[in-house]
Each structure stands twice: as structure tokens, then as C-alpha cells.
Specification:
- The structure is a single chain.
- The protein is of the alpha+beta class.
- It folds into two domains: about 180 residues, no CATH class; about 210 residues, no CATH class.
- The chain contains eleven helices and 16 strands.
- Strands 2-6-7-1-5-4-3 form a seven-stranded antiparallel β-sheet.
- It is globular.
- The relative contact order is 0.10.
């Protein structure tokens, strides 16, 4: 299995400048390759330029500009060209699927923050034997950079990436590991129903509180955004204000990740089988379509209320949580199953009667068929668990 590690690095002042130049030159390569593809399609009889052709030009580009492009790793530049190729592949895939295409865009220096090294030892080297109790990573054109390694790296390092977040720099490793020993079986299964009022309700009648980190930080973020809006573009004061806003967002992101990791770990340790709804989060958080009246005006479509719900969905971080849950379950030998969410909160777990009237309020479930009463989210979790168990039994072995 593949596991990722993210460590803070502590470059010197000179190394910080070299890292910034590395990002700048890779960004220039990305934009130049994008411009070549655009020009070839528009002006040369709609010719398509592919990754192989652009990769073959790297040798000449490095020879022409040895002070900038020639000083960096050849493999990392190939990885940058592959990133552009993946962007075009996703663009054409969305066209075929009838989705909004999203043509690849040129990147400014602020929007290009990662350089990938596809192989340890090719333009980069992870030093697994630290000297003077300090771990270092060697990067071509930068040197040996100190790493704040807060936990050991298990397995063989496959790829290395360098990422800038605000004023901080991080190194991200992917390591290939043997499949770990599964956790001891508990004999307990559970279904979870994700929500807003509670982060989730489980089929045992329990609830996990929703921390709402974004809502708690909203006042500070609003004040920081107001300060930023009053600053003159290009000024030193504006740069400081931008950093303040970014720092607040990073804190919320770390808090959300911490909550997701701890909650997922608790579920994995206590249960052998976990069922959850297969939520289409992107569709759930879409803005409502406008409702034209035909005379140039528009009728109310509930956009304001939907915007508040969308903020709450984003603040809960369901997608991140489910991805972390699946990864932890795989490493622990547990099973996670996604089921169809339709009618999970409207079907009675006692008699099976399904009706909209079974859920008179957001929290109340009252079956109009047999009179069964319970919390609506608990009912949803029970139905999710039953659907998950049925799907597990039907899954071919």
C-alpha cells in the first residue's frame, strides 16, 4: 500500500530564494507549454501537441536557458508537463461527459505552489539516516534542506514533492509499505448518517458533534477580509493582510483535518464494518438555477438560504472525512461500504413503510403506518446499515 507523509522543512534564507525560483521556473514552463498547445490548435490547422512532443523539447529548452530551466531536475520538469497533460485529459473527459469543460488556465506565481519529483534519487534524495539528529532532503539546485520529521517514515520512498503554503514550505513523501496486520475483530457493525446539526448519527443511537470550525472563525475571517479590501494593491500592508487571511484559512483547514482523522480512527478501531451514504456532495452544494419570469425579472429561488446550507456542507468536510475513513479502514483491515442514500430517512425500520410524511420535522421520525417514533438521523443510520449489509452479502466473492 502507498502512504503519504507531510513534513515541514526549514530552509535557510538562500534556500528559500532558490525554492521560490524553482517554483517560478516550473510555472513558466507550465505556461509556455500551455501556450504552445493553444497556438498549435488555433493557428496550425488545429494540430494537437501532446506530452511526448513537449517532453522531447526539454533538452533544447535547458540548453537555451541554462541559468533558469537548466539548473533544475529534468524529471521534475517532465512531471510539470505531465500535470498539464492531465489537465487537458480531464478537460476532454468533462466535454464527453457533458459537464462544464473548464479549459486549462495559465498559472500565476501565486497559484503554482508545488513541484513534483517522480522518483527518489532522481533530482532529489530523502536522507533516511539523519546527521546530528537532523533529517534533510536534498533537492537539485537548492541543496540539503532541514526537515522537521515528527514521525518515522515506514517503507521505501517512491516520490517527493515540495509545496509552498503561505510562508511555509513542506516536503510530501509517498512511501510503499507492506500491508499492515489487521486490527483484532470486534464483531460490531455500524451505519452512519452524515448531517449538519450533528456531524453524524450512528445506528446504535449515538451522535458525533459537528465542530463547525469555519463558523467559529467566521468573525475573524470577516474582519481580516475587510482589512484586506482597504489595502492598496501592491503595497507591503496588503501583502501582510493577505498572509493574515491565508493563515486563518490554514488554521481552519488543519482543525477540520484533525477532527476528520480522530473521528475516522475511532470508527475504525471499534467496528469491523462501516456503512455510509454515497453522497454526491458536489451536486448537493450547487447553487439553485435562476427562475426568469419572462419579463426581464427573476422570481425568488431560495439562493440566499441555499448559500447558507452550502457553507455548512463545506464546513462539515464530508468528502475529506469519507476519504480518510476509507484509507484508515484499508490499513486496518476493516470494510467500508457506500450505499444509495435515497429514502434512508423516510423508510420505517420497523415495518418498512416509506413515505415523505414519516418525517414531519428535521429531527423527528414518526411512521404513519405503524406509529414507530425515533430520531430521524438514527433511523437513517439504521437503514444505511441494513442496505450496506445487504450489499455486502450480495457482493461476489
Amino acid at each position: 500500500m502507498i502512504r503519504a507523509y507531510k513534513f515541514l522543512i526549514r530552509p535557510t534564507v538562500g534556500q528559500q530564494g532558490a525554492l521560490a525560483e524553482m517554483l517560478r521556473d516550473h510555472c513558466s514552463l507550465y505556461n509556455g507549454a500551455l501556450q504552445e498547445r493553444r497556438d498549435a490548435y488555433r493557428h496550425v490547422s488545429r494540430t494537437t501537441v501532446r506530452y511526448g512532443q513537449q517532453s522531447a523539447q526539454l533538452k533544447d529548452i535547458r540548453a537555451f536557458d541554462p541559468q533558469r530551466q537548466g539548473r533544475w531536475s529534468f524529471s521534475s520538469q517532465q512531471a510539470t508537463l505531465r500535470r498539464l497533460d492531465k489537465a487537458f485529459a480531464a478537460f476532454f473527459r468533462r466535454i464527453k461527459a457533458g459537464e462544464k469543460p473548464g479549459y486549462p488556465r495559465f498559472r500565476s506565481g501565486k497559484r503554482f505552489d508545488t513541484v513534483d519529483f517522480p522518483k527518489d534519487g532522481d533530482g532529489c534524495r530523502w536522507d533516511s539516516t539523519p546527521h546530528d539528529s537532523v533529517t534533510r532532503v536534498r533537492l537539485q539546485g537548492v541543496g540539503h534542506v532541514k526537515v522537521h520529521q515528527h514521525r518515522p517514515v515506514v517503507g521505501r520512498v517512491k516520490t517527493i514533492s515540495v509545496k509552498r503554503e503561505g510562508r511555509r514550505w513542506y516536503v510530501i513523501l509517498t512511501a510503499e509499505q507492506d500491508q499492515p496486520e489487521p486490527l483484532p475483530a470486534t464483531g460490531i457493525v455500524v451505519g452512519i448518517d452524515l448531517g449538519i446539526a450533528n456531524f453524524f448519527a450512528d445506528s446504535h443511537g449515538g451522535f458525533a458533534a459537528n465542530p463547525r470550525h469555519g463558523k467559529k472563525a467566521a468573525a475573524k475571517l470577516e474582519a481580516a477580509q475587510q482589512v484586506l479590501s482597504r489595502c492598496k494593491r501592491g503595497s507591503k500592508r496588503r501583502r501582510k493582510a493577505v498572509e493574515t487571511v491565508a493563515r486563518l484559512h490554514r488554521k481552519v483547514c488543519r482543525q477540520r483535518l484533525d477532527h476528520a482523522h480522530k473521528t475516522a480512527l475511532g470508527l475504525v478501531r471499534e467496528h469491523d464494518f462501516i456503512a455510509h451514504e454515497d453522497l454526491k456532495i458536489r451536486n448537493m452544494s450547487k447553487a439553485p438555477e435562476p427562475r426568469p419570469n419572462g419579463d426581464g425579472t427573476y422570481a425568488s429561488n431560495g439562493a440566499s438560504a441555499k448559500a447558507g446550507l452550502n457553507r455548512s456542507i463545506a464546513d462539515a468536510g464530508w468528502g475529506v472525512f469519507l476519504a480518510i475513513l476509507a484509507a484508515k479502514a484499508e490499513g486496518a483491515g476493516r470494510e467500508v461500504m457506500a450505499v444509495d442514500p435515497r429514502n434512508t430517512s423516510r423508510q420505517c425500520p420497523a415495518c418498512g413503510h416509506t413515505a415523505k410524511e414519516n418525517r414531519p420535522t428535521q429531527e423527528t421520525f414518526h411512521c404513519v403506518g405503524c406509529g414507530h417514533q425515533a430520531h430521524a438521523d438514527t433511523v437513517g443510520a439504521l437503514n444505511v446499515l441494513r442496505a450496506g449489509l445487504v450489499r455486502r452479502e450480495a457482493k461476489p466473492t
